[in-house]
């Protein structure tokens, strides 16, 4: 009897460990520095509704009337599945919003989202393509499971089904603009800083006014500063030509990490390389071009880094013009390159 009881307890313990691993630690096949919270339902102790991790209250924004925007896409935003506004109920999590509006199935004892609207997670088998669901809040890759994030009024919840590789990740995306500059992540918004040299001050001022018009509370312009880049206290936008920005070691090192930083671009001495989702070069631009892209320090980074950079003055001007006068052109994109006036969705296929 005692032996039988011991075996039962041992089996139960092993089952709990398996469920915990699937819901919190993952299988070991997730992208580098990405927690399985991208797909998992439960991953950390639940965040209290209406607060950030630091305990600060969510930022109220007039006119939102306790609604959130829900987006479902696939292939890095290229194909739209669902786009709707959902009335936000008290204590609702991201999972509640999703479950109310779609057909969701779960796996691993309910700790992992298996499919949304019939589109199922696929781990590729031997040598196959891994594809899964990942979610972002206001353009920030979530660091907790869908049951553990409590959105606030006006938040944009974006689920995208796409391929992934272990060394590639996308900590932040541009397609929720003007987020994350208005509401931020978990209702916490730091001051926005535009880093620009004096040569590009007029472009920086145009962008500053555009952000304020979108409802961004605090936007200042500062000279490029490696220390500020390392210790961001809010969203930072780097604006300039690559020839000048490459002189900053921190940015040069970021550019050299192009295979895994999620920007989908790589500046070279000959021009600009555009990447696929694996971080491989898919197109080379040797003419004037600009980019609008974003990254961060892993998932849940409340102070993401945006790059508005040109291969030359013309390319930079094109990138700024898109964000200032035609921001709808980047809606639903992970990153973008502007080549000959055309907005190119990144990563490339």
TrEMBL record:
InterPro entries: Transcobalamin-like_C. The keyword Signal applies. Residues 92-162 form the Transcobalamin-like C-terminal domain. PROSITE patterns: PROKAR_LIPOPROTEIN. Keywords: Signal. Residues 43-62 are annotated as: Disordered. Residues 1-23 form the signal peptide. Gene3D superfamilies: 2.170.130.30. Residues 49-59 have a biased composition (Polar residues). The keyword Ribonucleoprotein does not apply. This is Transcobalamin-like C-terminal domain-containing protein. The lineage of its organism: Bacteria, Bacillati, Bacillota, Clostridia, Eubacteriales.
């Amino acid at each position: 009897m005692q032996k039988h009881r011991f075996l039962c307890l041992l089996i139960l313990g092993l089952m709990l460990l398996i469920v915990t691993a699937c819901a919190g630690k993952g299988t070991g096949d997730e992208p580098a520095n990405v927690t399985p919270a991208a797909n998992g339902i439960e991953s950390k102790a639940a965040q209290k509704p209406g607060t950030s991790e630091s305990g600060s209250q969510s930022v109220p924004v007039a006119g939102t009337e306790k609604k959130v925007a829900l987006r479902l896409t696939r292939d890095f935003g290229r194909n739209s599945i669902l786009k709707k506004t959902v009335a936000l109920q008290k204590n609702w999590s991201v999972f509640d919003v999703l479950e109310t509006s779609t057909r969701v199935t779960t796996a691993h004892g309910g700790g992992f989202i298996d499919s949304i609207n019939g589109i199922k997670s696929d781990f590729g088998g031997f040598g196959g393509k891994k594809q899964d669901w990942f979610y972002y809040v206001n353009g920030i890759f979530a660091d907790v499971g869908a049951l553990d994030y409590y959105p606030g009024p006006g938040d944009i919840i974006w689920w995208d089904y796409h391929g992934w590789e272990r060394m590639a990740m996308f900590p932040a995306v541009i397609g929720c603009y003007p987020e994350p500059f208005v509401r931020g992540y978990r209702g916490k918004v730091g001051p926005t800083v535009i880093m620009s040299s004096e040569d590009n001050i007029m472009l920086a001022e145009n962008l500053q006014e555009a952000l304020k018009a979108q409802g961004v509370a605090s936007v200042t312009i500062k000279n490029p500063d490696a220390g500020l880049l390392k210790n961001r206290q809010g969203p930072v936008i780097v604006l300039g030509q690559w020839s000048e920005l490459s002189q900053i070691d921190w940015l040069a090192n970021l550019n050299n990490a192009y295979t895994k930083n999620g920007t989908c671009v790589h500046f070279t001495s000959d021009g600009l390389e555009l990447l696929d989702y694996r971080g491989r070069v898919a197109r080379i631009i040797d003419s004037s071009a600009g980019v609008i892209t974003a990254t961060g320090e892993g998932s849940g980074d409340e102070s993401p880094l945006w790059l508005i950079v040109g291969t030359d003055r013309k390319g930079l001007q094109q990138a700024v013009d898109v964000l200032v006068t035609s921001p709808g052109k980047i809606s639903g994109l992970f990153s973008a390159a502007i080549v000959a006036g055309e907005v190119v969705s990144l990563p490339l296929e």
